[in-house]
Amino acid sequence: MTAIDEKTPAGAASALLEVRAAGKTFGGVIALRDVSMRVCAGEVTCVLGDNGAGKSTLIKILSGMHAPDSGEYLVDGVPAAFTSPRDALDRGIATLYQDLAMIPLMSVWRNFFLGSEPRLGWGPFRRFDVARAKHVVREELRSMGIDIRDVDQPVGTLSGGERQSVAIARAVHFGARVLILDEPTSALGVKQAGVVLRYIAQARDRGLGVVFITHNPHHAYPIGDRFLLLNRGASLGEYGKADITREELTSLMAGGAELEQLAHELSRGDPAG
């Protein structure tokens, strides 16, 4: 088990986005300290950590909500200084949070185009091009392998996995080059989590760079190409899939030695003794 060198190896794919030794503090609280990671086209970078590990702060830096207090943030190898999530979105970096910013009572196609509706006509007489919107949504979902029964149905009637898939397809349609997914499988059962992982693979295979934030190594390992582990705002290392097993990943995240100590403390001991 060997962590990836922070310097880009010779011949390695160029990164769509990269953070180097990023740090962030809020008052006297160190939220992130010397964290580095790379996101490449056609790869899934998994960011793992328990509650309070620094995952949310890292997401907010990547999405343009916060600027790092130290270190560098690069997009396509060039330093970036975002002042808002809109700046990041304009560069093709789309962040999908757990609430997905969807309106449950609106149809699938209305949610898909919310805020970016296709229009017919000119000037004050422009109107929503409903037929085109429905056609585009059907085609985009089909191209991602997503089977939605009826694009007119309220998005609130979809399963959690289906809603996640619609959000992913929407981001791809509007030009995302990097998808940042905030715990997309955390509230889902095994079957629905599998649905979401398949759509993440679809986005990866279309050449997007994906950042998959999760606390579940069993969801991360099958889909991930590289793994960044965080603990109390610090990096425990960034590993390629060839450099770490699922068991090692789980042990690192669970705090190996601490878990063994806890198991010993909870043990009933030898009943015969």
From TrEMBL:
One Pfam family in the UniProt entry: ABC_tran
Coiled-coil region(s): none
InterPro entries the record matches: AAA+_ATPase, ABC_carbohydrate_import_ATPase, ABC_transporter-like_ATP-bd, P-loop_NTPase
Keyword tags: ATP-binding, Nucleotide-binding, Sugar transport, Transport
Keyword Nucleotide-binding in annotation: yes
Span of domain ABC transporter: 17-257
Molecular function GO labels: ATP binding; ATP hydrolysis activity
Entries under PANTHER family matching the protein: CARBOHYDRATE TRANSPORT ATP-BINDING PROTEIN MG119-RELATED (PTHR43790), SUGAR ABC TRANSPORTER ATP-BINDING PROTEIN (PTHR43790:SF8)
Protein name in UniProt: Simple sugar transport system ATP-binding protein
Species of the source: Streptosporangium subroseum
Source organism phylogeny: Bacteria, Bacillati, Actinomycetota, Actinomycetes, Streptosporangiales
